Amino acid sequence: MAMMADKAIVIDTNIVSYLRNNTPGYTDKAIERIRDLMENGCSVCVTEQILREFLVTQSNLQKIYNKVDYNQLQADVDYIKSQFPLYYPSGQSVQLLSDYVYRYQLKAKKIHDANIVAVAAANNIKSIFTNNPSDFSFALNEGFEIITL
Questions:
Q1: How confident is the model at residue 35 (pLDDT cuts 50, 70, 90)?
Q2: What is the mean pLDDT of the chain?
Q3: Residue 103 and residue 30: Cα distance in Å, rounded?
């Protein structure tokens, strides 16, 4: 896959979860794809929303086994922050989020996805790596590239 150098790509929560968990059929593909993106000069990053969603999904997974390991959750977040640049919401991203919700009539969980897009756009990032491309279909109209496994 040919990618332009110095291109930033936000990785979605599902990809981060695949990196953390040994998910048959997905973990190896996610690692390989990220390695390929980075070898081709791409900067792989996350948004604050991704970290929040990661904490929700990981604590839910752990709850299934009747034990949430908070030390592990903290270690996971620290590791993610050490490996990937982290982008936060700004006044510009909040305005973009509001614009997207109105323009595309987004509701419920789609607003979380729109927040990821808004933070990315406010930081001049126009690519998202996800295994759920339908979550970001509206972003195609905003000039985003959706990269999948």
A1: very high
A2: 93
A3: 32
- Distance (Å, whole) CA 136 – CA 144: 9
Q: What is the 3-state secondary structure (H, E, C) of 106-142?
A: CCCCHHHHHHHHHHHHHCCCCEEECCCHHHHHHHHHH
Instruction: With beta carbons less than 8 A apart as the criterion, state whether 58 and 52 touch.
Output: no
Q: Would you state the pLDDT for residue 61?
A: 82
Q: pLDDT tens for residues 38-85?
A: 999 999 999 999 999 999 999 888 777 778 889 999 999 999 999 999
| Ramachandran quadrant class, 41 (left: phi over 0; alpha: psi -120 to 50; beta: rest) | left
Q: Which amino acid is at 125?
A: I
Does the pLDDT value for residue 127 go beyond 60?
yes
State the helix-helix crossing angle for 13-20 and 48-64, rounded to 10 degrees. Answer: 50
- How deeply is 37 buried, as exposed, middle or buried, from its count of CB atoms within 10 A (0-12, 13-18, 19+)? buried
Q: Say yes or no: domain 8-147 is CATH 3.40.50.1010.
A: yes
Q: Which residues, 6 or more positions from 86, have their beta carbon under 8 angstroms from its beta carbon?
A: 45, 46, 47, 48, 51, 80
